[in-house]
Amino acid sequence: AAVLVIAGAVVGVNWPGPAGWGAQRSVQAIAEAPDAESVTVASADGGEVTIVWSEELGRSAVRASDLPEVGSASTYELWYIDEGGARPAGTFDPDAGEAFVVLEGDFTPGVVVGMTVEPAGGSEAPTTDPIVVVET
């Protein structure tokens, strides 16, 4: 039994908390789709962001690392941007600079994925310049 506890503790160090497991698995499922594509970029605030998408699944996701904390009055917000403008695609707050997020809404090829820092709770339209812009 002691071995199992030790093994469990080691695994716990390498994975995000229980809430992060589902998000990480969902991002991984999109990344493993047969038609998955991805782009990794540096964010304007010093982080690294990978956008992964699957036309077949109609889904996209973000894996972010080294993102700075934005404080309790702000949050990161994701956007789908096309000729009709920017549509909110979810908000998130990184845990120790890391985040796994599946974007809300359906992914369509050719859409631009953007990321901004917005007031806590998010916005209906971007209120700041994007720190990440990726064409899909």
The low-pLDDT segments are 1-19
Number of domains: 1
Shape: globular
Mean pLDDT: 86
- Per DSSP E runs of 2 or more residues, the count of β-strands stands at 8
End-to-end gap: 49 Å
Oligomeric state of the chains present here: single chain
Order of helices and strands: HHEEEEEEEE
| Beta fraction | 35-45%
Strand order of the largest sheet: 1-2-3-6
Biggest beta-sheet profile = 4 strands, antiparallel
The radius of gyration is 16 Å
Return the structural class.
Answer: alpha+beta
Number of helices: 2
Q: Helicity level, as a percent range?
A: 10-25%
Organism: Agromyces binzhouensis
Pfam families: RskA_C
InterPro entries: Anti-sigma-K/W_factor, RskA_C
Domain Anti-sigma K factor RskA C-terminal: 2-131
What is this structure's SSE topology?
Elements: H1 2-14, H2 18-31, E1 37-42, E2 48-54, E3 59-65, E4 74-82, E5 85-92, E6 99-102, E7 112-119, E8 132-135
Antiparallel strand pairs: 1-2, 2-3, 3-6, 4-5, 4-7, 7-8
Q: Can you walk through the features of this model?
A:
The chain has 2 helices and 8 strands. It is α+β, with helices and mostly antiparallel strands. It has one domain. The strands form 2 sheets. Strands 1-2-3-6 form a 4-stranded antiparallel β-sheet. Strands 5-4-7-8 form a 4-stranded antiparallel β-sheet, with no helix packed on it. A hairpin with a 2-residue loop joins strand 4 and strand 5 (85-92). The protein is globular and about 40 Å long. Mean pLDDT is 86; it is low at 1-19.
